[in-house]
Design goal:
heterotetramer, A: alpha/beta, Aspartate Aminotransferase, domain 1, Aspartate Aminotransferase, domain 2, 2 domains, seven-stranded mixed sheet, three-stranded antiparallel sheet, globular, B: alpha+beta, 4 helices, 3 strands, 45% helix, binds pyridoxal-5'-phosphate
């Protein structure tokens, strides 16, 4: 029935790039490099060589030494490892950490569990645009602060934090700084050799790599305990058989994900979209207008009920907040933290563009959004104020 | 009958009547809303000779609410005014295959209709007095 | 230079079956079912449908309800989740668990960490053949025992435990029973509806599925805490974006992995191999002669130094113990637990056959092993007794 | 010269001499072993007119040890008996590209050669007395 289906949910996950699929396929099947990379036989060494290449490709994307990259099952696990691992291994340094209410659930939920274990967690404030001021972070740091965890690009709003300035605050006070960079790779550059960042969470599937594989960068010398035990893989930081095809694809995806080349294209699509959406009277942009990644737009449609808006736009794959929230009635914790009411948070859509988004995709989406918004607006004519503000 | 698809059809193209002209004869209006449920419903009903002639509605709510309002409007037309208090959402929810957690939202349609009925009764009292 | 390379290391990992690769490929790329299965849009629901099918396929393999299967990154994570999750969530029931020294590192290392956290761990004894007697298990169970963790098929020796009888001991005493079934799927049947098993660790990559994805079966009603936090996926047991292609491939692999069809073929290759190897004077079999999985043979070559043996057989992919030990000088903890000296444990090879092993592969391997063993034996002529016993 | 491949070549086909006949003239034998290192080495050496004529060896050990014994045997042949105490494994390890953690194993080759030298000296003493 539906003639078209436009995918504007690249922040939830991206399709795997065909070049990445090719590399992955070379590691599967009886004639592929499918051995266990921990095996010492020739087939194992060939698989290991794939892992080494990938580790280098991933390291290069964030200007890190390859030997400081460790593979995990995704950014969720990397975030958990960063928080639990650092707080566990540095107990003697203190029991205080800092994060923000804008973080991904992986960080927020880990922080909650740490709180239940006696760790004191401070949520640093941010402004209504979702930006954290380095001065506020500096003021939150205490003598017993061990770790600060702030994401690079917010997955719901696309807002970009000034990681360099935030990192400086941590470095000055000798506090470890973890950055969840799941959303930024390939869109915004991140260099751990230039920025004072100690731990970085990475994931493949937001950058045209496969789902189910991620990594953590751990700066040389940072003390951290594993959260999964058994086997000597990944320097003991993360045991379990290394998934050759996943890691090889991850590496290839990161090698392809050059922000210098991709960001301008993403930005032009996103700007095209916003130029159209801003003409819709009831639409307003969430998050800072310019300090943002080129791939995400989060827009509130005042007076339009969220679930109906999404159902009406069922030919467009967008999301309400993050993908992991999208099945749940709860409106986005990020938008609420930025001051939106429950109703307005629910009336917001996250549009995220990517490598395969065309100009005509955006034209189509704009037409459809205008059409459905005006229909639902008319339907709700006379509704009380709380639906719009 | 495939009820979930009736929901979808009604949500996507509800059969809405034009607004009534100001001071149209025998028109009453009833609203109900619940901020925590994120729903607002308004029914406008024209009753002539105790028969519901036309129902106009506005709604801010989830697709199920929109679809069921549309169904209710259609169902009411042509019935006697007493039907306004006979909208049984508990029963309709089942028939139309609406998930149970939506029932609270649907009950606001009953509320709006009940307000219409009260208004109508007042109008009739005034007519009689 | 090497004309041939025979893969006899299926217990380390298997190549991915071409039918599985096809399913995986359908979930990748811009025209595949590559959306986030947690997204509520149509593309997300298509991905979700793939997950549902796979969950059913995996459940069916162990006769479990699909809703009791939860995806993880592999058996290592599943083992950790079983041990930490159950001991954490059932603290009020007790602080004692039982396992064996024959287990995989994932269980042993998790148990070690639990010990450091105040859990009392008993290692139930086993005989020289690597078999655990249910009476010994019954005798180890205490009133405060919460969990017993015993593997189904040992990854180094192929020895099969009597899971049904061991499970009965646990059931009688109201103790939870976890089984690491990473090695048994597709080789030995396991039915959680027939056996009193409460938790089962599964992995795809030992059964012609992809590396980097696994699952845990958790019987309805078992209390367990997650070890990774954030996001609502997998009923909260395991957050993180579900890897559609991995899970779809896992499901297909398990659908194909029918022990009734495969075990006889594996057995015939293994028997062919053992018939040849047993003629070598210095060769002896490790582990029970008959109570074993059809895919693994672990053989000690008395008087042949292990590293030289493996180097001499560099055209044959076998391993010394488990893959995760194979880079390490340490001889297998399993063989040592079964009473072998360090030297003999190091002089042992694990041969594991699989779906793509041919009769002529075995012939070739037998020829090469005989040749190299006799050469090295002659070289070591006159060596002291400790090299042979 | 690609030393790791020399190691591989020597390990895979060491250039071993036939065993000496029983009571062959001027033959001495020296063994060394270390159970913790999992190595045993035996050198049998025939010295005629103070020149090492032939070296026979047996070895139980890792590929590096096997290869270096093979090298040592070749190196000793044709040299004066003094060479038996001049086998410098520290230096050879480097030249042959053997990982440093194998040095302990290689030193057993020095030990076995030193035993040979002692035996030889005793033999000579007996010859003189
Ligand atoms: C900012 C951020 N962190 C973490 C994650 C979790 O990543 P993964 O799906 O790799 O576990 C996501 C996406 O889901 C994300 O957007
Ligand atoms: C018995 C057993 N348990 C657990 C594992 C770990 O599995 P995975 O590689 O999926 O983490 C393995 C294999 O490595 C195994 O053989």
């Amino acid at each position: 029935m539906k003639v078209k289906e436009i995918y504007l949910d690249y922040a939830a996950t991206t399709p795997v790039d065909p070049e990445v699929i090719e590399v992955m396929t070379q590691c599967l099947g009886p004639s592929g490099d499918s051995a266990n990379p921990s095996s010492s036989h020739a087939a194992g060494r060939r698989a290991k060589a794939r892992i080494d290449i990938a580790r280098g490709q991933i390291a290069e994307r964030i200007c890190a030494p390859a030997e400081n990259i460790w593979f995990t099952s995704g950014a969720t696990e990397s975030d958990n490892l960063a928080l639990f691992g650092v707080m566990q291994a540095n107990k003697q340094r203190g029991r205080h950490m800092i994060t923000s209410t804008l973080e991904h659930k992986a960080v927020l939920d880990a922080a909650k569990i740490l709180e239940s274990q006696g760790v004191d967690v401070t949520f640093v404030r941010h402004n209504a645009d979702g930006v954290i001021n380095p001065h506020d972070l500096a003021a939150s740091i205490r003598d017993d602060t061990v770790l600060v965890s702030i994401m690079h690009v917010n997955n719901e709003t696309g807002v970009l934090q000034d990681i360099e300035a935030l990192g400086e605050c941590c470095r000055e006070r000798g506090v470890l700084f973890h950055v969840d960079a799941a959303q930024s790779t390939g869109k915004v550059p991140l260099s751990v050799s230039d920025y004072p960042v100690d731990l970085v969470s990475l994931t493949a599937h937001k950058t045209y790599g496969p789902m189910g594989v991620g990594a953590i960068y751990i700066r040389q010398g940072v003390k951290i305990s594993p959260i999964i035990h058994g086997g000597e893989q990944e320097g003991g930081y993360r045991p379990g058989t290394l998934a050759t095809h996943q890691i090889a694809g991850f590496g290839k995806a990161f090698a392809l994900a050059d922000p210098d080349r991709e960001a301008p294209l993403l930005k032009s699509r996103r700007d095209q979209l916003w130029e159209g959406l801003r003409k819709i009277e009831c639409a307003s942009l969430n998050g800072h207008a310019t300090q943002r990644s080129p791939h995400v737009l989060n827009v509130t449609f005042h007076g339009i009920e969220g679930e109906s808006l999404r159902a009406a736009l069922s030919d467009i794959a967008v999301s309400a907040g993050s993908a992991c929230n999208s099945n749940i009635a709860d409106p986005s914790h990020v938008l609420r933290a930025m001051g939106l009411s429950d109703a307005l948070a629910a009336s917001s859509l996250r549009f995220s563009v990517g490598r395969y988004t065309s100009e005509s995709d955006i034209d189509y989406v704009l037409g459809r959004v205008e059409q459905e918004v005006s229909r639902l607006k008319e339907l709700a004519n006379g509704a009380p104020d709380w639906t719009t503000s | 009958m495939d009820n979930p698809s009736q929901i979808e059809r009604r949500f996507l193209s509800p059969n809405r009547k034009k607004d009534f002209k100001n001071n149209a004869l025998g028109v009453v209006s009833g609203e109900a809303s619940d901020r925590t449920l994120n729903v607002w419903v308004r029914l406008q009903i024209q009753v002539i000779d105790s028969v519901i002639q036309t129902v106009h509605f506005n709604v801010y709510g989830c697709p199920h609410t929109v679809a069921v309002v549309d169904w209710a409007a259609e169902w009411l037309e042509g019935q006697s005014a007493k039907a306004l208090v006979a909208l049984d959402m508990l029963k309709r929810r089942n028939e139309l295959g609406v998930p149970v957690d939506r029932l609270g939202k649907l009950l606001l349609i009953e509320d709006a209709a009940a307000v219409c009925k009260m208004q109508l009764d007042q109008l009739n009292m005034q007519g009689k007095s």
